[in-house]
Structure formats: structure tokens, C-alpha cells
Design goal:
Number of helices: 10
Shape: elongated
CATH topology: Serine Threonine Protein Phosphatase 5, Tetratricopeptide repeat
Number of domains: 1
Radius of gyration: 18 Å
Largest sheet: none
Structural class: mainly alpha
Oligomer: single chain
CATH class: Mainly Alpha
Strand content: under 5%
């Protein structure tokens, strides 16, 4: 039945999501739905996957006031395993820009960076962070990106894959320009230390 998703226009898909009440369906059902999506062939288009990411997760994640349930984490991990680019461009971008996003939302982004996302999406998340004014709230996300590079022995990712020179330059420039706003920030100090540790061969 899910093959119908491949023949829907964006407006039809939005209507179908509303009809099926996907944004409020029980979380165990959400896990099943996301796992069924993995078996869908051909895969969803980028537009459809982005729309589904918004419908399935945005309201749930923005409303978090405590750590997400194991069912929600399982659904997120399943969706990210196949559609991480549209997921990051829709959901993670919204969380980074949402003024009401709190500690639980940022912790979730950090967990996705540390556990679920592939190098290109880790890089995408960092570039999204650097597109908005750096704040105390977002520093843990930068730290998670840098920590992912030094604590992933199971993966053979080079530094260049995750943090190419142009992105490193932008990160260092951002940290330097905004340093006066973080003179008493322990998280800022940790990020600077991580940059100097992880990227010591590239930072002069």
C-alpha cells in the first residue's frame, strides 16, 4: 500500500498524512511505519521524504519536555538510515532556528549526530549551525560534531570527510568573531579546545 506515496504530489501527500494522522499516531505505530518505508522500492523522492520528515517528527520533537522514548528514537534512527539528507534539511534545520527549542531538542540533535548520521550529514548539521548566530544553546551541537570525529573507532572516516577545510575555516572564523560573547562560557572553552585538539594540524 505504501507504493501510493511514490505517486502522490506534495499536496496529495500532505493530505494523506493528515488523513492518516501521522503527526499524532502512537509511537509504536510510527516505528513500524518508518521500518516499512525502508523496504519501499523505489525509494521516496527527496521532496516526499522531506515532507514526511516534517509530518512524522517535527511536532513530536518540538513538544519534547523530557528525553524521547525508545520508540521515538527507533523511528528517528530508521528514517535517518535512508533519508538523512532531507531529514537534516527539514527537521534539524527547524530545531536549530526555532527560538522555542530547549535542552531536550538540542540533546536529541547531539544524539543524532553522535549515533545516527553519516559523515555528509554531520557536516551538513555543522554548516546549518554556522548559518545562524552562534549561541550557548548550540555549542553542544558543535561539540558533538567534533567529538564524533575522535570517538568513532568503528568508522574509517577521515577528518577531511567530516570537516573539510572550508568548513573548518568558517568554524574557526565564527568562533573568533563571537568570542567576546562567550568570555565566561565553559561550553565555548570546550569547543575551542576540541577544535585545537581535533584539527591541530590545520589550525595556525
Amino acid at each position: 500500500e505504501l507504493h501510493i506515496l511514490n505517486s502522490c504530489s506534495p499536496s496529495q501527500l500532505q493530505g494523506l498524512c493528515s488523513f492518516l494522522q501521522l503527526s499524532t499516531c502512537p509511537e509504536p505505530s510510527l516505528v513500524h511505519f518508518c521500518r516499512w518505508l525502508l523496504a519501499l522500492s523505489p525509494a521516496l523522492s527527496y521532496t516526499s521524504a522531506a515532507l514526511l520528515a516534517e509530518q512524522l517528527f517535527l511536532r513530536r520533537v518540538l513538544s519534547l519536555s523530557q528525553p524521547p522514548s525508545r520508540h521515538l528514537l527507533a523511528a528517528l534512527a530508521a528514517f535517518c538510515s535512508k533519508y538523512s539528507q532531507p531529514f537534516c534539511r527539514v527537521l534539524v534545520a527547524a530545531l536549530l532556528r526555532e527560538p522555542g527549542a530547549g535542552a531536550e531538542q538540542i540533546k536529541l540533535v547531539c544524539e543524532l549526530v553522535e549515533e545516527c548520521l553519516e559523515p555528509d550529514c554531520v557536516q551538513l548539521v555543522l554548516s546549518q549551525v554556522l548559518e545562524v548566530p552562534l549561541s550557548e544553546k548550540l555549542l553542544p551541537v558543535v561539540q558533538a560534531v567534533l567529538g564524533r570525529q575522535v570517538s568513532s573507532p568503528a568508522h574509517s572516516w577521515s577528518l577531511q570527510e567530516v570537516l573539510p577545510p572550508e568548513l573548518l575555516d568558517l568554524l574557526v572564523l565564527t568562533l573568533c568573531r563571537q568570542a567576546p560573547a562567550f568570555t565566561t562560557s565553559l561550553d565555548y572553552a570546550k569547543v575551542v579546545t576540541a577544535v585545537l585538539t581535533v584539527c591541530q594540524g590545520q589550525v595556525s
